[in-house]
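QA checklist item 7 of 12: single-chain prediction sanity check.
[x] sequence parsed
[x] length recorded as 258
[x] structure emitted
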Amino acid sequence: MAAVAARLGLHAVLAIRGERPVVYDGNLLLARLLGADTRYHPDIGPELGPELAVGSGAGVMEALAAEVRARGGRPYVIPESGACELGALGYIECAVELSEQIHHGAPRFDTIVITSGSGGSHAGLLMGKQLAGLPGEIVSVPATAPAERVREAIVRTVGAAIQRFGFAIEVPKAIHLLDGYQGAGPAAATDEELAVIVALAREEGLLLDPVYTGKGFRGLVETLARDPKALGQRVCFIHTGGLFGLFPFGDRLSRLAQ
């Protein structure tokens, strides 16, 4: 978002959870290099979830928008991780792409697994399953927020999309989550999760980040270790980004990479 704003001559203002760090790193470093104005909110805390634009966090976004208006600007508020009915359209498109690949001969999946932060990606895939005929179950691994709060956010996002866009679909009665892999803040990754990240990098050339996709992949691997048939015969894990989240864990990863 900061890169697009810089390219278009727009002014990006970011609401950041937690304290201002001594040294910029990861995505925050990139945002600052791209000229984004960063505002820190230690009262919100580091836990990624659906509440920064709703509930207790709504006041933060409203206050920033009011500040921009007072300066003569016209703010456009994007909720955390774009998790709203508009943002979820991106993962409807993802479902369409997967469906087209299967139609042209790619293997069908029994289950698609994705990491959940604020639930927008999961909501989009659930809608795409109905709209594009995507086969298989959609399962996500909450990486930071409690599972029930993620589930509520998914239901809210799908309902809002139906109301706003007139989709002829239903809010799913069952939303499948693999719970128990949440973490928050700079110590969010366990040694086991970091070891999985290193192993996958060396075996497959794939890089996951410790805070987000690493937790999702660990949830998938451990679920299959307990029951190889739990998610069907063929599983698709969607890598949703987060590569720059590796670098704040440089010290710990360096020890594992010896």
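[x] summary fact logged: The CA atoms of residues 200 and 206 lie 6 Å apart.
[ ] second reviewer sign-off
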